[in-house]
Amino acid sequence: MQYFKISIKVILLALVTLTLASCKKDPIENPAVSALSFVNAAAGAPDLRVFIGQNQANNDIFNFGKNIGYLNAYSGEREVSFFQGSEKKATGKFNLRDGRFYSLFLAGKWPETELVLLQDSLTRPAANKAHIRFVNMSKDAGLLNLGLTNGSTLVSEKAYKAASDYIEVNGNAAYTFVIRNHAALTDTVSIPAVNLEAGHSYTIWAKGLKTEVGNDALGVAVIKNY
Q1: CA–CA–CA angle 125, 127, 133 (5° rounding)
Q2: In a 3-state reduction of DSSP, which class is residue 170?
Q3: What is the DSSP letter of 125?
Q4: Cβ atoms 145, 178 nearer than 8 A
Q5: Domain spans in the chain, listed from the N-terminal domain onward
Q6: Which of the residues 20, 32, 54, 81 could staple to 75 if both were Cys, CB 3.0 to 4.6 A apart?
Q7: Partners of 84 in the beta sheet?
Q8: Name one Pfam family in it (predicted).
Q9: Distance in angstroms (rounded) separating the CA atoms of residues 155 and 34
């Protein structure tokens, strides 16, 4: 099976088509389909090739901080592997449920990595709203809060590899996110204002290491899931 980047609308249309086909008098046996995205959250990781089974899932650069949008994949147990050149560096098997959407994070500090699979939400936000969740992928930053530069806290006390539930915020608005150490409650890292579009879902994630500098330093990134 070859993998392609696809939009949420295309995936949902495919799922509806499969459902309608199953209602016919002589139903066609259709394969169960899931959607899988990838995030390179391993500080110091080089450009990697990603495989689902025997099929390469990416052509673009996939080093630390990069992400790959949703790809279609057969449901059931799937093996995902990460290669540096021809050498396999990380691998894992995951059970993907039919019609579900997932994000797979390559976490840790290169080359000591681990894989973290999160199930994503396709629940549509209310009118003029957006959904966000916070994921802590900083191995040495301790418990983190997600907040805003005005001093407010949106998500509290997330440990390494933990993800919050999705929360609803106003859409079509700009937010300046910060992460704070839960114990100190002082701003640790902030990013320039990000505009969140109404009707969409986002992942805000802590990346890098507090003991590093440059590209691998502790930071915040935003992924538009759909």
Answers
A1: 25
A2: strand
A3: P
A4: no
A5: 1-120, 125-226
A6: 32
A7: 87
A8: DUF4397
A9: 28
User: Counting Cβ atoms within 10 Å, is residue 29 exposed (0-12), middle (13-18) or buried (19+)?
Assistant: exposed
Structure confidence at residue 184 (pLDDT) = 80
CB distance 51 to 3 below 8 Å:
no
Tell me how far CA of residue 39 lies from CA of 18, 128, 150, 151, 185, in angstroms. 29, 28, 29, 29, 27
DSSP secondary structure code for residue 177 in this structure: E
Strand locations in 75-111, DSSP E?
A: 76-84, 87-96, 101-109
- Looking at the DSSP bridge assignments, the partners of residue 82 are 50, 90
pLDDT at 3: 47
Q: How many Cβ atoms from other residues are within 10 Å of residue 83's Cβ? A: 15
pLDDT at 7 > cutoff 60: no
> Could you identify the residue written with the tokens 């449920």?
97
- C-alpha distance from residue 120 to each of 61, 170, 197 (Å): 23, 20, 18
Mean pLDDT of 55-61: 95
Whether the Cβ atoms of residue 55 and residue 21 lie closer than 8 Å to each other: no
DSSP state for residue 215 in the 8-state scheme: G
- What 3-state class would DSSP assign to 149? coil
State how far Cα 58 lies from the chain centre. Answer: 15
pLDDT for 31 equals 83
pTM over the 0.85 mark:
yes
CA distance 202 to 206: 13
Domain 125-226 CATH class label = mainly beta
**Distance set, CA 75 to CA 60, 100, 114, 115, 117 (Å):** 24, 9, 22, 18, 14
Shared fold status for 1-120 and 125-226: yes
